[in-house]
């Protein structure tokens, strides 16, 4: 499993799109932190310095799904289409492949968000551990969706389109469902991670629990999959 995690982690860092996303996160974090450090009067008394993380929080919540899905939508079905999955199965169990892929992607985003929060902490002179955990929990959910998508849809060319569609639709539905009183959207509110992230407290870890559930479903699906 360790080899699968390392391979997935390193392959993401070799991608031009991945490097562009990391730079985008760092630039946004640096620009926002520098702006607030030069305009301290904008920091509200009741919020303290947590306003520093508002930019990275908005970035993850609005574009997190799009970024994760666009970079890893074909993480498993690409292996199946290229038949390299048959080689992996001889070296590792099916469970190890799925979990390794998940952890490899998760580790990439963990490093990406950690780098951004490190930049913020240097300017704010404060650690935002809880906000960091919020973003990690949110991205874990997005990775769970990505793994399931790559298993359910067999063609990588199809997941490319679906990934873009979901990356745009999920944030819209998630934010809309929080304010809406419609019954269907109320259900959506409790299924997507936005309500729990905005609710805060121990609700922050609910998206991570959903991610674990999706991973279990992915394991069950992959066991029944013909390779």
From TrEMBL:
Q: In its keyword annotation, does this UniProt entry include Membrane?
A: yes
* Membrane-crossing residue ranges in chain numbering: 12-36, 56-76, 97-123, 135-153, 160-180, 200-222
Q: Which GO terms describe its cellular component?
A: plasma membrane
> Which GO terms label this protein's molecular function in UniProt?
ABC-type transporter activity
Write out the entry's keywords from A to Z. Answer: Membrane, Transmembrane, Transmembrane helix
Highest taxon above the source species: Bacteria
- Give the protein's recorded name: ABC transporter permease
């Amino acid at each position: 499993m360790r080899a699968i995690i390392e391979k997935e982690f390193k392959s993401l860092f070799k991608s031009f799109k991945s490097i562009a996303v990391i730079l985008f996160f760092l630039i946004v974090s640096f620009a926002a932190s520098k702006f607030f450090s030069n305009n301290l009067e904008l920091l509200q008394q009741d919020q303290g310095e947590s306003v520093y993380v508002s930019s990275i929080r908005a970035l993850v919540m609005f574009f997190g799904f799009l970024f994760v899905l666009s970079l890893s939508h074909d993480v498993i079905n690409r292996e199946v289409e290229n038949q390299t999955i048959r080689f992996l199965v001889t070296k590792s169990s099916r469970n190890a492949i799925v979990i390794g892929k998940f952890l490899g992607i998760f580790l990439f985003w963990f490093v990406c968000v950690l780098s951004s929060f490190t930049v913020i902490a240097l300017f704010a002179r404060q650690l935002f551990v809880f906000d960091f955990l919020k973003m990690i929990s949110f991205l874990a959910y997005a990775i769970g969706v990505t793994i399931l998508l790559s298993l359910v849809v067999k063609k990588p060319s199809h997941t490319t389109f679906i990934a873009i569609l979901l990356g745009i639709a999920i944030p819209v539905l998630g934010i809309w469902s929080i304010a809406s009183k419609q019954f269907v959207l109320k259900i959506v509110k409790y299924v997507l991670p936005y309500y729990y992230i905005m609710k805060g407290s121990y609700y922050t870890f609910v998206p991570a629990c959903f991610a674990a559930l999706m991973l279990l479903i992915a394991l069950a699906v992959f066991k029944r999959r013909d390779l």
